[in-house]
Design a protein that fits this description.
The protein has about 625 residues and is α/β, with parallel strands linked by helices.
Length: about 625
């Protein structure tokens, strides 16, 4: 009897699954061998410590110079690795007070081999990058260290930059809003820190440059991407677009929006559910999974009557169709405070993966203008694309690419297929003591919400800090409303509070804290049990500086704008590591150190209370589209 197509498909899927499982086992066995090989090199590095530790600062700098000479002469990085890593470890101890653990050395080797190092949260990925960064910069090639935001790029360039500078290397920093004259020396440095967007946009600008001297980048030899899964997977197809001003926006966006307001919408979750809806009375269908909006035959007739055209599908009505399609998408698919926020008369996109506001970015193909018409703000000029590239294509330009993250194994196949990058799981320095509980599934939304509130009350009653993760601003606000009614003090973190993101997340471990966070907001910020003393010290310092600035404004010494710039500058420099002889900055840093010690004593005591209460409780309210985010 011949097999049916369904049976053959199932057999093929079973064989494929078995093959992938077999392949996964083979790769895991290979990973074990690789870790053993790395461990042997770690033993060599540890053996060198006795000869490097007694060196004076000048002798260690001279040793670094000799490594550069050997690299320039063509010596392979594999031969230089043990000595280079030993030098970086010792330089780190002398500048930052941090000594690389053996597992961090293994992480550095994985990065040098062009792999993705999966390291658990808190294992010190930032410090790991200095090992591979220094080794690959010895040859004179520019190393790019890519972070997810300007704050982390600045922090890491100053903090980790001490290690590179101690060993005679220059460190550059690329920030949003810098002029080309500032970027050129930053790229000429041995190691350059910046965000994925800035590196990508600089590449596009270089390609648009008329003269060679107007270009700022000097090649793409080696990149270390922090939060590599977020940048290379989540944002892989996000296009970076440099656009110029196009034609003035047509009034048709506003006319089409007035038409769309009166239409009846039908929402479907399943893609196939639309096929049976040919004779429905709704005017357009929203496919929630595909995020599309489509006019039904009924809606098409209404459009033809409204715009007085005989047949909307005629070629001469293509432009009209475009305006209508964008209007119903703006009304039916794009949600305020989820996909975008309205601020100061502008539509600002919310990053769907991080919950952060994406200033300066606009939806293309007229969707942004359609949303502006929907929200009643000024409809901006349409733009025309001058240059574009996706992150996926940009990062493929690098001769060697590596990355770090706490969550890469779930996307291992995609990394290997798309970027030819292997993922290696780096062991933790100490055993993981976190308890991972199974999912709790409820019959309905109300039952789930009640259980969430009940768990928050239970934790809050005993002082155990709880961090509640949601998938949208809407869900966060719903939980917040219930907690307010119950009188439970809490903090909400979402795109509306973008500026306070790092501060809110930093204090999520305080005794009795209740924090509601959207998605992956606050990535790269340390949550300390008992509270983050550094953030508390900066808050105190800022309050003191604001009082000082206000008194200077009243006395006529400063105007309000200059006073604000003074406060921002001093807070920016207070916990910085950049070298300076400015007496004002040095005084602020001294004051910050005093406040930090004061708060550290309190947070250390509170940390013990938090541990006694059960540690930080993390509660996910629902599954995300990506397993890795969960």
């Amino acid at each position: 009897m011949p097999c049916s197509r369904a049976v053959l498909t199932n057999i093929w899927l079973l064989r494929k699954t078995a093959y992938m499982g077999f392949l996964s086992k083979l790769l895991t066995m290979g990973e074990g061998k690789q870790l053993k090989r790395y461990q042997a090199i770690v033993d060599t590095i540890n053996g060198l410590e006795a000869s490097i530790k007694p060196k004076t600062d000048a002798e260690l700098r001279a040793f670094s110079d000799s490594l550069r000479e050997r690299a320039a002469a063509g010596e392979d990085t594999a031969a230089l690795l043990p000595e280079a890593f030993a030098a970086v470890r010792e330089a780190s101890v002398r500048t930052t007070g941090l000594r690389h653990f053996d597992v961090q050395l293994i992480g550095g080797m994985a990065l040098n081999d062009g792999q993705i190092a999966e390291m658990k949260t808190g294992e010190g990925k930032t410090l790991v990058s200095t090992l591979a960064g220094y080794l690959n910069a010895l040859s004179g090639d520019n190393v790019h260290i890519v972070t997810v935001n300007d704050y982390l790029a600045r922090r890491d360039s100053e903090w980790m930059g001490q290690i590179y500078r101690f060993l005679g290397m220059e460190v550059g920093l690329i920030q949003n809003g810098m002029r080309p004259a500032q970027k050129t020396p930053a790229y000429k440095a041995d190691v350059t820190y910046g965000t994925n967007s800035e590196f990508g946009f600089d590449y596009l600008r270089d390609n648009m440059a008329i003269y060679k001297q107007a270009m700022v980048q000097r090649g793409h030899a080696f990149a270390i991407v922090d939060e590599v899964d977020s940048i290379l997977i989540d944002e892989a197809r996000t296009p970076l677009i440099i656009s110029g001003q196009g034609e003035k926006s047509s009034q048709m966006y506003e006319i089409a929006d007035r038409f769309a307001v009166g239409l009846k919408c039908l929402r479907v979750k399943e893609v196939d559910a639309k096929e049976e809806q040919d004779d429905i009375e709704a005017d357009y269908i929203v496919d929630e999974k595909a995020k599309t909006a489509t006019l039904t035959p009924h809606g098409q007739k209404r459009a033809e009557a409204y715009f007085k055209v005989e047949n909307l599908s005629d070629p001469e009505n293509t432009t009209l169709q475009h305006y209508i399609n964008q209007a119903i998408k703006a009304r039916g698919v794009m949600q305020r405070d989820v996909d975008y926020v309205v601020r100061d008369g502008q539509i600002i996109i919310v990053d769907e993966f991080t919950g952060r506001l994406m200033f300066g970015r606009r939806y293309n193909e007229g969707l942004h203008q359609a949303i502006e018409a929907k929200e009643g703000v000024k409809v901006q000029h349409e733009s025309k694309t001058l240059a574009t590239i996706t992150f996926q294509n940009y990062f493929r330009l690098y001769g060697k690419l590596s990355g770090m993250t706490g969550t890469a194994l779930t996307e291992e196949e995609e990394f290997r297929h798309t970027y030819q990058l292997d993922v290696i799981e780096i062991p933790t320095n100490k055993p993981v003591i976190r308890k991972d509980n199974p999912d709790a599934v409820y019959k309905n939304e109300r039952g789930k919400i009640n259980a969430i509130i009940s768990r928050i009350e239970e934790c809050h009653a005993k002082g155990q800090p709880i961090l509640v993760g949601t998938i949208s601003i809407e869900k966060s606000e719903e939980l917040s409303k219930i907690l307010k009614a119950k009188g439970i003090k809490h903090t909400v973190l979402n795109a509306k509070h973008h500026e306070r993101e790092a501060d809110i997340v930093a204090q999520a471990g305080k005794y009795g804290a209740v924090t509601i966070a959207t998605n992956m907001a606050g990535r790269g910020t340390d949550i300390m049990l008992g509270g983050n003393a550094e953030t508390l010290a900066l808050d105190d310092l800022k309050r003191g500086l604001i009082k000082l600035a206000e008194s200077k404004v009243q006395e006529g010494e400063l105007d309000e704008r200059t006073a604000k710039m003074f406060v921002d500058k001093m807070v920016y420099e207070a916990n910085g590591h950049a070298e300076t002889d400015n007496p004002g900055i040095l005084a602020v840093r001294k004051k910050f150190d005093e406040l930090y010690k004061l708060h550290k004593a309190q947070t250390d005591a509170d940390a013990e209370k938090v541990r006694a209460a059960g540690g930080l409780y993390i509660l996910g309210t629902e599954r995300h589209e990506s397993r890795r985010i969960d």
